[in-house]
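Private note to self, pasted from the team thread so I don't lose it. Backbone tokens:
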């Protein structure tokens, strides 16, 4: 009620101030009200952001509902872990994203504890506008996938996230005993770029604009991940 009263006061000042009152005076009155009640502005911004997130979530759920009967679209040729053809846990991630690295252990533990119920599907979503190594890291991991070493490479990239770069990509590949000629050819190939772009296109279709982004059995998960909520979703599948 207090917020409404203050907003009405501002509207009244704008709509019904005397013609003789200078614009500068009116502006000062409005600014003073804002100074006296900054919490109202914050509350309004928070409400706007909440409404925006809710609308975005509804849109995302709508797209996911349409894709629910097309598991091959959601899985594609992406690396998977856990059970086969069970509840899908989609992870859209960026190897340079610190929050993705922070979420990785929780995801790993959840999948290990529910290895017969969950199929983890990794999707690349490099935020190239803010992470200059995201695309290169994604393509390097894709090359490792071609030699059946994606998850090992994935774990190493997140473990050494602060060292992302050409030296690290080679070092990890050698540590995993990958065939280096094939690795270098694959990671720099049009096929690697196309595979990453396919994941990005799917993410954009869903309406993803940040990482990490998780979907369990068609339901978008809030962050940070809550294992109890995830387990409850599994019980309803």
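Design output:
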């Amino acid at each position: 009620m207090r917020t409404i009263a203050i907003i009405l006061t501002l509207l009244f000042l704008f709509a019904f101030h005397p013609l003789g009152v200078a614009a500068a005076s009116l502006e000062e009155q409005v600014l003073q009200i804002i100074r006296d009640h900054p919490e109202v502005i914050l509350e309004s911004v928070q409400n706007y952001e909440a409404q925006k997130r809710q609308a975005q979530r509804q849109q995302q759920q709508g797209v996911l509902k349409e894709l629910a009967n097309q598991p091959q679209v959601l899985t594609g040729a992406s690396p998977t872990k856990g059970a086969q053809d069970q509840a899908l846990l989609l992870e859209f991630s960026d190897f340079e994203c610190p929050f993705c690295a922070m979420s990785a252990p929780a995801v790993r533990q959840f999948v290990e504890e529910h290895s017969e119920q969950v199929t983890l599907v990794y999707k690349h979503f490099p935020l190239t506008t803010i992470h200059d190594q995201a695309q290169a890291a994604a393509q390097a991991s894709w090359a490792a996938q071609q030699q059946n070493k994606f998850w090992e490479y994935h774990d190493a990239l997140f473990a050494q996230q602060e060292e992302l770069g050409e030296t690290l990509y080679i070092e990890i590949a050698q540590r995993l005993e990958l065939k280096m000629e094939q690795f270098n050819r694959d990671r720099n190939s049009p096929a690697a770029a196309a595979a990453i772009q396919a994941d990005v296109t799917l993410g954009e279709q869903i309406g993803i604009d940040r990482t990490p982004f998780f979907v369990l059995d068609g339901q978008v998960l809030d962050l940070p991940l809550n294992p109890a909520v995830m387990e409850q979703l599994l019980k309803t599948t």
